């Protein structure tokens, strides 16, 4: 990193894997100057790596990186790279993150960080030993409506929180002709919808309410076979006609009963969480409902700029009020001037990039971190154990998370 004459700090950016998410990370870094002109941090897109030559070239020609390589180790060994974005498939996450930590590179990594609790813990240990800053792709927590919801809970406006209901319902695998990508193969993806979508939902619950202590879960695989898709030839949205059928090795649906920990801001609250990748109807309906003794609130990603709030028990017109995201809620004012003009998914990644780089240069660490990823992975692992033995399972406390806890 370099401090310039005007006091701004230039941070050298490396990218590993130039797919959709890698492109999104790159745009987020580039758009920081528009959303946060006073940030005092200048990302410099230095070095990208991708095994596909066309994507590596795209990193230079389209995204604006100074150079590109086929081997991610060249990015990690580049002395001009200070931080790396790790956007490779799940089965490479832990390997690359551990290598990044060993190289002294701060990293922003997509979830799940590992193919389960064990790999995620190994990354956590590596990051701690190397003293590098980590940030996790839990982008939904950055929605201004969610930040406002977190404030309503923390200030007690909803009263004592009694229960939560959450869902992450997507249709990207609803078509039975959907390809058997790496996401359906256990040694490549780990769990199925538990790691892919439920991990996001667990983070939303823990960010707003506090740590999950116990779970009771069940899972199901709706489509036992899918047509094989050669690695690197498409995405998990691809449809294959008349392909060779191979078994799906992880779950399409997961449901959980949960109990929050004693030190959560919503201590001893209970709830239900569901996730599906084969839902017919919802496109990306990722929602959370919070119920308290004096009110409630609910949010859904498909309408990410809205929060529905009911507060004031006994009011003449008791019910929900639609509250539009507006300046003063989270970072909304950095993107739009007033309520009703909507933010989008990409904007949440700009916020994520800003929080990551601020932590890297030593400012307030408001970003999600590897301990948040480990905590979510522990809950997912507990759910897998519970679904297998049909018993309640415990998730142990994780220090250093950003979970909402009592003061």
Automatic annotation (TrEMBL):
The keyword NAD applies. Residues 12-138 form the Gfo/Idh/MocA-like oxidoreductase N-terminal domain. Keywords: NAD, Oxidoreductase. It comes from the Bacteria. The keyword NAD applies. Coiled coil: none annotated. This is Gfo/Idh/MocA family oxidoreductase. It comes from Leucobacter rhizosphaerae.
């Amino acid at each position: 990193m370099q401090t310039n004459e005007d006091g701004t700090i230039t941070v050298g950016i490396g990218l590993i894997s130039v797919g959709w998410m890698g492109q999104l990370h790159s745009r987020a870094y580039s758009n920081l100057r528009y959303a946060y002109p006073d940030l005092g941090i200048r990302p410099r897109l230095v070095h990208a790596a991708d095994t596909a030559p066309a994507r590596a070239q795209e990193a230079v020609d389209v995204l604006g990186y100074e150079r590109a390589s086929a081997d991610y180790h060249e990015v990690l060994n580049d002395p001009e790279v200070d931080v790396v974005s790790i956007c490779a498939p799940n089965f490479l996450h832990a390997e690359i993150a551990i290598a990044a930590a060993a190289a002294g590179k701060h990293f922003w990594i997509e979830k799940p960080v590992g193919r389960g609790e064990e790999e995620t813990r190994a990354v956590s240990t590596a990051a701690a030993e190397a003293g590098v800053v980590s940030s996790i792709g839990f982008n939904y927590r950055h929605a201004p409506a969610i930040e406002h919801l977190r404030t309503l809970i923390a200030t007690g406006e909803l009263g004592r929180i009694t229960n939560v209901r959450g869902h992450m319902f997507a249709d990207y695998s609803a078509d039975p002709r959907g390809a058997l990508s790496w996401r359906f193969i256990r040694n490549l993806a780990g769990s199925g919808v538990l790691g892919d979508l439920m991990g996001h939902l667990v983070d939303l619950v823990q960010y707003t309410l506090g740590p999950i202590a116990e779970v009771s879960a069940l899972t199901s695989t709706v489509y036992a076979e899918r047509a094989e898709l050669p690695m690197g030839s498409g995405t998990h949205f691809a449809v294959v006609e008349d392909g060779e059928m191979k078994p799906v090795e992880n779950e399409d649906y997961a449901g959980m009963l949960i109990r929050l920990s004693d030190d959560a801001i919503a201590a001893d609250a209970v709830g239900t969480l569901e996730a599906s990748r084969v839902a017919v109807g919802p496109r990306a309906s990722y929602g959370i409902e919070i119920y308290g003794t004096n009110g409630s609130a609910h949010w859904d990603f498909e309408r990410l700029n809205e929060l529905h709030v009911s507060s004031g028990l006994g009011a003449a017109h008791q019910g929900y009020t639609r509250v539009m995201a507006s300046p003063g809620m989270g970072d909304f004012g950095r993107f739009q001037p007033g309520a009703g003009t909507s933010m989008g998914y990409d904007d949440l990644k700009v916020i994520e990039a800003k929080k990551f780089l601020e932590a890297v240069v030593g400012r307030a660490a408001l970003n999600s971190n590897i301990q948040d990823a480990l905590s979510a992975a522990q809950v997912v692992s507990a759910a897998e154990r519970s679904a297998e033995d049909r018993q309640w399972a415990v998730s142990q406390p994780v220090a250093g998370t950003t979970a909402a806890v009592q003061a």
